[in-house]
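Quick start: read one record
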Amino acid sequence: MRTYDDSFSGQRIYPGKGKLYVRGDSKIFRFQNGKSESLFLQRKNPRRISWTVLFRRQRRKGITEEAAKKRTRRTVKSQRAIVGASLDVIKEKRSMRPEVRSAARLQAIKESKEKKAEAQAAKKSEKAKKAAGASKGQTQRIVGKQSARGSQQKVQANTR
């Protein structure tokens, strides 16, 4: 047996009962009786009319106690590895004592500073080499953006 729901009240419409209303945009509405049809045509909000299903659902009326109580889910903590560190490495770091951890941190900072100083010294020596080459007369031609891209060089004018 095919039943339909009332478009306004939400109640069930059995075969042989109710009215069918087709709007100008070809949308079909089914009504159980003239009362719900009339209220729909008056553009009443079914959530504000106390006997409709939407009103009762919104205000949680008629729900049994068992269905109303929601079981809360306990969140389960799970350990997952992060990119670049496996789970056992992470656990090992977590179980480290604070003194050991701070010592390892200081060591890492010291190493990074040394590396930075080395890079700086290499840069300085490279700069000094270039300066020495320039003083001897080996000047390098300064290349502009356009010539680096392969455009034609400007022709120097020899007359004014």
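The mean pLDDT is 86.
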